Amino acid sequence: MSQSVALPAVGTPEIPSIPLRELAPWALLFGLLALLVLFFVSADQGAISIPAGNAVHEFVHDGRHLLGYPCH
Amino acid sequence: MTARAILLRGLLAGLIAGIATFAVAYTVGEPHVERAISLEEAAATAAEAPAPAEDDGHSHSHDEEGTEVSRSTQSTVGLLTGTLTVSVAIGGVVSLIAAAVAGRLGRIGLGGSTALVAAVGFVGFALVPFLKYPSTPPAVGNGETIGTRTALYFGFLLVSVVAAVAAVLVANRLAATRGAYTAVVVGLVGYVVVVVVAGLAFPTVNEVGDFPADTLWFFRRASLFTLTTMWAVIGIVLTGLLLRLQTQQAAPAATRELQPAH
Fold first, then answer.
1. Residue contact A23–B3, C-beta within 8 A
2. Would you list the domain boundaries of chain A?
3. ipTM of the prediction greater than 0.90, yes or no
4. Considering the entire predicted model, what is its pTM?
């Protein structure tokens, strides 16, 4: 599939695709960043606490409840 | 169509979705959060006689002692922060997945594949986990089981997301040989079978107690509206932005070919 032999375009316009090699670094960096954000909003200072305390939990408290994550 | 251009549009879609999500969460959800908290406080006052000796572990954000963030901050700036950051993060991830599948799902165009990513994301990441482990208002849930409940929720979410991704990949493979109809049916049925079996295998959590059923339902419905708003706005805005990007990039090439046009 990846060895595209450039099929002759028969009527249908070619849909451009982006090389996965170009996407990989963006996906890796942003994926990690997104996981970090999701962790702090959805789970921090509930089951696991980094840092210890309750301030993060309380600050995002309502969002955590309404976005459907277990809060306390 | 570069990864950077697509990610920027994903972040923008996430930002817009975050604002819309906050609006829905604040207007539709907050009244029921407040109602649940007032019920919780009433219950706490009623059981005042044996004062809460130890308050560790089960530290409710709305207990008077140990509260660091006021309720008015939690329901406004705090809620906005939560919805915005999650929306932007999900918007970005959806845009990068949309970039990866563009032009790779049979003959589905950019708009269709982007909308599909958002729709599959909503079902796999939000709706199906919600159906198994629905959101709970404040006052529902035992603080001592938060570890187990968090593990169960994210465990089930992981099963659902992996099954959804696998379903799309399998369907995409099948589409080339067996046609789109068979591919879509096999993908959908496969996903449903996996999450139903996982749903039966994962334990049920029920810590509702005697919490009023109507308030619980109103809260859960509001929670579902909140999640639906986020995914719908991300899907709609991102699809629109990417289609516009595609047109913009096709336009210069077209004008070069049609020189005499103004």
1. yes
2. 40-72
3. no
4. 0.87
